[in-house]
Amino acid sequence: MVEAVRIVTGLAWQSLAMIVVYPSRSTQGAMSKLTVNLIQGSVSFDFSTEAAQALQSEISALMQAFRTPAGPKTTGDRPQAKPSLDYRFSGPLLFECFCNPNIWPTPFAAKVLITLREERLRLTTEAELTQLMEDLNQYLDQEA
C-alpha cells in the first residue's frame, strides 16, 4: 500500500559499500510485512527477519560514522569521507536503501533514499533515518 509518495532527486549517489541479502527458500515463507513510514505516507512490503537484522547492523555502522569526527581541520587537507549506507534486499521485491553521512550534519537531520522495485513498478522516495530505525526496531520486536 502506497500513500502520497514524493519523488526525490538531488541526493548524491556515492556507493562506497553495498550489502546484498538474498533470502533462502526456507526464509521466504517466514516473511512478514515491514511498514516504513515515509515523510508523507507509508509503504509496506514483505521482509525477512534476517534481512531486517542485516539492515539494522548496517544502520548501526552508519550511526558510528556520524559519531566519528571528520578529522583535523588544517589548511589544504580535506577531511576523509565517511562510508555511505548502501543496502539492497532482493526478495519478492527489490528494496534498496541509501544514505550518505557526508551531506547531513547529524543523524537526526539525515534522510534515507528508498527504492522499491518490482517487474512493473519502481518507487523512489525518502524517509527520515530516525524513522526508519524506529520502524525496523518495531518490526524486529514483533518478530521476536
Task: Characterize the structure shown.
The protein has 144 residues and is α+β, with helices and mostly antiparallel strands. The protein is 26% helix and 28% strand. It has three helices and seven strands, in the order βαββαββββα. The protein has helices at 25-28, 49-67, 129-143, and strands spanning 19-21, 32-37, 42-47, 85-90, 94-99, 111-117, 122-128. The chain has a five-stranded mixed beta sheet with strand order 1-4-5-6-7. A hairpin with a 4-residue loop joins strand 6 (111-117) and strand 7 (122-128). It is elongated and about 55 Å long. Residues 1-29 have low confidence and may be disordered.
Outline the secondary-structure elements:
Blueprint: E1 19-21, H1 25-28, E2 32-37, E3 42-47, H2 49-67, E4 85-90, E5 94-99, E6 111-117, E7 122-128, H3 129-143
Parallel strand pairs: 1-4
Antiparallel strand pairs: 2-3, 4-5, 5-6, 6-7
Helix pairs in contact: 2-3
